[in-house]
Amino acid sequence: MPWGAGTYVKGVYNKEIPGTYINIKVNNSTYVNGSDRGYLACPIELPWGTDEDVIKVTAEEYPLNAFKIFGYNQGSPELTFVEEMLKNASTLYLYRLNGGGGKAKGALGTARCSGTLGNKISVVVEANPQLQDFYNVITYVDNVEVDNQVVPKVGEDTITLTKGTEKEGTAVETASATFDFADNKITVTFSNVPEGYKPSVRIRGKVGILAFTPGRLEDMELSGGNKHIITYSEGAPTNGEMTVEAVLTKDKATVLKSHTYTCQVNDDAIVGADATQLVDNDFVIFKKEKELFEENGGDTFKGGGEKTVNEQAHQAARDIFENIDFNILAVPTTDLEEQNRYIQYVKDLREDGCKFQIVLPAIARPQPINYEGVIEYVNRVDNPIVDEQTDLCYWLAGAEAGCKVQNSCTAKVYDGVFNVSAKVTRADQSKAINSGQILFHNVGDDAVILKDINTLTNISAEDIGSKSLDFANNQVIRVIDGISTETANVFNNYFLGKRPNNDTGRAELKNQLLKIREHYEQINAIEDYDSTELVVMQGQKLNEVIGQDGIRPLQAMDTLYFQITYQNV
Known about the structure:
Elements: E1 4-6, E2 19-21, E3 39-44, E4 54-58, H1 62-70, H2 80-85, E5 91-96, E6 109-111, E7 121-127, E8 134-141, E9 144-168, E10 176-182, E11 185-191, E12 198-205, E13 211-214, H3 217-223, E14 225-231, E15 240-249, E16 253-274, E17 284-286, E18 292-293, E19 299-300, H4 311-321, E20 328-330, H5 336-351, E21 357-361, E22 374-377, H6 393-402, H7 426-434, E23 437-438, E24 440-443, E25 446-449, H8 474-494, H9 503-522, E26 535-538, E27 545-548
Parallel strand pairs: 1-2, 3-5, 3-20, 20-21, 21-22, 22-23
Antiparallel strand pairs: 4-5, 6-17, 7-8, 7-19, 8-9, 9-16, 10-11, 11-14, 12-15, 13-14, 15-16, 16-18, 24-25, 26-27
Helix pairs in contact: 8-9
């Protein structure tokens, strides 16, 4: 939350952090989550996607950008759970629990994300058939072309060294030097260097500068000497003859051995695509420091993988979701300890003003949850992909997130890809309702939600006056959460630190809050709203504003009692 928010003790106005603090008082009235719904957060395992950050996708963009975001097309088995959520939710905030693993790499680049999909990436460099001085750099994912960039041709000089005369220098006790010449590189290796002497390589001649790399101390110990490799330094050498000397230095330099070499520079001997002109795409970050990509038959990436899901991954998800506004958080796990952490998470954040609910599968637990912020479901599926208990969580979470404040999920028909086990008895139905659990039951061939409720089943003594059993109805929760959230948003975004706390400023605030209530009445989320009950007044301190209001949420019909009298004519 960017600003302080949450509840307060009535009559005690002692908050230090600026923000909005709202209490719900039960007096035949209750509360809601903004009328703009459809926002769902979910920790999930995916084979590709942004690492250690939120993946945001909307129902509108998903058909067009599924491959770009997830690496798979719409309808792929890997995206079943994403599509289950998007049956009803409008916006998803996903966190990859298995993200942060190995990123596949190739000679020309690195996969943008971790995951096994990275092992299906390849980059092909080929001459452009129409443009003589250009190359095509094409990225493929699982043999599907995802990027094709046309970049200019560039050349790279090479150097050819020809070995010449070898001369022995002055003997220094047992020290010796050997010269190895291969692949146009000169390797000078010192052996038996006496203590106090420093070995080095000296280059004489009119060929410009060649770079040489001294061997590390570890190399010296392993080889029993000191190794120097002379390599081509781009742009430096010129044609001509040079002498390479193996030198030992103590009081003065002593040449152990020398070699002459003829240096021939070959301009643009290697040609290829100008890597510096490439733009990283959705799948590959190119190694542009290579400067030149030679023509190839395909550079296949390797080493991509996923992390094992653990508690740290779930905690990272909770931490990042704390900074996002959403209606429902899906919790597709049957681990008791992990569920308890999410339950405590929703309790803490709801008390701090973040009005959302979580959806999770029912499991055996020592005590019932008994909290309006938790929606628990009973049913399993007969054709699971991952788990018969958790696979239904995604669709139900999407349904609850997408349900409008004036509507209910009661009697909503399941329209996903799973076969929901919904053959239940009337005893099963009564047990679920009394336990505060959502149950799907068969109506014809359909699996239908029996009643849209949460786990609140009784009111404790300390909750009397702040809760009622009406809060067990998720439609009531949506209304109260919505009005609370929109009230906080109006104050935090338009009045906090921006308007004076005088009669004019408070009247303006009241007018804006009144518009929220009128909107909820217009969409049949509340009824019989009395605007005179909305009070906005000066607090005990000059910077404080105190408000109070009364609302009556509407509920959808779910029970009919009807009497028919038989007329015997």
